[in-house]
């Protein structure tokens, strides 16, 4: 039954469409629902009564967990306020792993602290047997001089040449701010944010499902990383935009045999255990302590997918 939905963006209400997806059939589910902040969507009114919004969320959260395989993962992106309610519901039916804090300015709200992060809840369906890979991102550097931002003192010889392991605070991925870089959609996510979640919890050919697909960010990330996708989206126009972009996307985010995430001309996420296979494609500073002022570089620029192919950023 699920075959009919593989590599498709289905137009309709996610609660109806979920009925077609069998229990325990998807490797990873990710939801970026409307935040109930009166955003200007084409076919959805983003302003429900408080309890009505939460009741609705509980229904699709339950569906996400139901369709996820026992070793699979569930991610929910939202503002912290709503995530506190989501955890109360999820803690009863899934296994909490992390609250990822994505450092990105949000709308100014209220007169207390300025909101400066979105949360991404990371749950696995079951404790113990889950598929999770450690990731690395490039060292953070001073933009003008290129020196490492963090002072590792006399320990620079021990640094990983590519960069540190990824923590639960993400400061290196920016929201799409400029209108010319985004589709006509009020809150599109950066694709390399999705790359990171997909690389962390799935393998090639695994199935990724997004019930609020918007303009197809999750599907594009899944496709370029050699995964399968299923997207649900209420709005016809967003579905059309997604289909065009997906058509233009190739499964080519790879170095050698390893899937990686590119951002512009750099690699922004790798799996820790792929480094031994891919390090031959990089110029690594010598001696290693020179990493302090020199980045690892890809040896051959032909290894980088060309601009057209990474145009959906
Ligand atoms: C926050 S946006 C998702 C944006 C998406 N992550 C992206 O990067 O393009 C939420 C989306 O959910 C859609 N939506 C709202 N209610 C829905 C429903 N009941 N079923 C399916 N999609 C729905 C909206 O049209 C909107 O595109």
Please give a structural write-up.
- It is a single chain.
- With 313 residues, this protein is of the alpha/beta class.
- The strands form 4 sheets. The chain has an 8-stranded mixed β-sheet with strand order 1-9-8-2-3-5-4-7. Strands 6-13-12 form a 3-stranded antiparallel β-sheet, with helices on one face. It has a two-stranded antiparallel sheet with strand order 10-11.
- Helix 2 links the parallel strand 2 and strand 3.
- The protein is globular and about 60 Å long.
- The C terminus is likely disordered.
- The structure holds S-adenosylmethionine.
- The site of S-adenosylmethionine has 21 residues, from strand 9.
- Output the helix-strand order: EHEHEHEEEEHEHEHEEEEHEE
Looking at this structure, what is the CATH superfamily?
A: Vaccinia Virus protein VP39
The computed structural class is: alpha/beta
CATH class: Alpha Beta
């Amino acid at each position: 039954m699920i075959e009919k939905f593989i590599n498709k963006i289905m137009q309709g209400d996610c609660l109806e469409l979920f009925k077609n997806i069998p229990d325990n059939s998807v490797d990873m589910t990710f939801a970026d629902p409307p935040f109930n902040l009166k955003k200007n969507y084409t076919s959805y009114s983003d302003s429900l009564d408080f309890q009505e919004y939460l009741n609705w969320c509980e229904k699709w959260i339950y569906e996400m967990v139901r369709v996820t395989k026992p070793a699979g993962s569930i991610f929910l992106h939202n503002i912290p306020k709503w995530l506190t309610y989501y955890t109360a519901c999820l803690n009863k039916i899934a296994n909490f792993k992390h609250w990822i804090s994505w450092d990105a300015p949000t709308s100014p709200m209220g007169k207390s602290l300025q909101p400066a992060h979105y949360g991404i809840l990371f749950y696995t369906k079951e404790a113990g047997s889950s598929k999770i890979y450690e990731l690395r991102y490039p060292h953070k550097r001073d933009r003008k001089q290129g020196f490492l931002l963090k002072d590792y003192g006399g320990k620079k010889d021990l640094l990983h040449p590519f960069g540190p392991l990824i923590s639960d605070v993400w400061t290196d991925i920016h929201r799409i701010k400029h209108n010319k870089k985004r589709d006509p959609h009020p809150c599109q996510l950066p694709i390399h944010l999705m790359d990171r979640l997909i690389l962390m919890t799935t393998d090639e050919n695994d199935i990724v499902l997004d019930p609020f697909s918007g303009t197809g960010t999750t599907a594009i990330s899944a496709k370029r990383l050699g995964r399968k996708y299923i997207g649900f989206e209420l709005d016809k126009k967003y579905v059309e935009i997604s289909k065009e972009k997906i058509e233009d996307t190739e499964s080519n985010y790879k170095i050698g045999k390893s899937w990686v995430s590119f951002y512009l001309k750099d690699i922004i996420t790798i799996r820790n255990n792929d480094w031994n296979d891919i390090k031959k494609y990089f110029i690594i500073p010598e001696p290693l302590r020179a990493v302090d002022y020199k980045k690892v570089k890809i040896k051959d620029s032909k290894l980088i997918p060309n601009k057209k192919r990474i145009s959906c950023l």
